[in-house]
Amino acid sequence: MTKLFSSLYDIAMKPLEKTRFEKIRANLVRKAEGRVLEIGYGTGANFRYYTNVERVDAIEPNPEMSKHAKKRIKKSRTTIYTYQEKAEQLSFPNDSFDTVVATLVFCTIPEPEKALEEIRRTSKPGAKILLFEHVKVDQKMVGKTQDALTPVWKKVCDGCHLNRNTLHTLKQSGLIIEKVTPYYGGLFLTIECCNPG
To answer: Where is the Methyltransferase type domain (predicted)?
Structure first.
């Protein structure tokens, strides 16, 4: 199922990437500076948007997704190093990164609280944490639908939880949330945070 999902991911995302979705992703990723950690780079959709950075260290636990990113790494104007590892157990030293980027990934991380601990540990005091995520909608009927679909959706879409409340998890993490911007009726959010150190 993982292999099938990685093959279909870019096809499914293509119509969204050509619309407002692409603009949201690009505007967020272009805020990255210095040395960057990207959590769950998937097929490398963000790589072309890195402009004012020294380098990007990008992790992805799914080797099938990584295969699809190779062309985008070659086309990137930024030096990108990739690693097959999980966000809950990063191999980087403390205080390594100026910016951390995660787009459409916290829905799949098995232990998001642990991943956020690792992000805090490996990012410098004052580092930017930039996220673009889909979340559980604060509307009763839509939220119930997300809950009902999540068990099947997880199996089909590489562990993706439609009903994850990532904003709540971030509020509990100790990161400072500076800006939250909702899109598509609150189904998607960009979240800009700071690591207080």
So the answer is: 37-130
CA atoms within 13 A on the CB side of 79: 4
pLDDT at 169 over 80: yes
C-alpha to C-alpha distance for 113 and 164, rounded to whole angstroms: 12
Q: Are strands 53-59 and 80-83 parallel, antiparallel or unpaired?
A: parallel
The tens digit of pLDDT for each residue in 84-119 reads 999 999 999 999 999 999 999 998 899 999 999 999
Which tokens hold the place of 122?
């490996």
Token reading at 189:
């959010």
Tokens of 179: 């800006």
116-136 pLDDT, tens digit each? 999 999 999 999 999 999 765
Nearest to 17 by CA among 44, 56, 37: 44
Residues in contact with 140: Cβ distance below 8 Å, sequence separation at least 6, in sequence order: none
Residue 83, helix vs strand vs coil: strand
Give this prediction's pTM.
0.83
Fold classification of 2-194 (topology level): Rossmann fold (3.40.50)
Q: Give the pLDDT of residue 8.
A: 44
Arithmetic mean of pLDDT, 6-32: 71
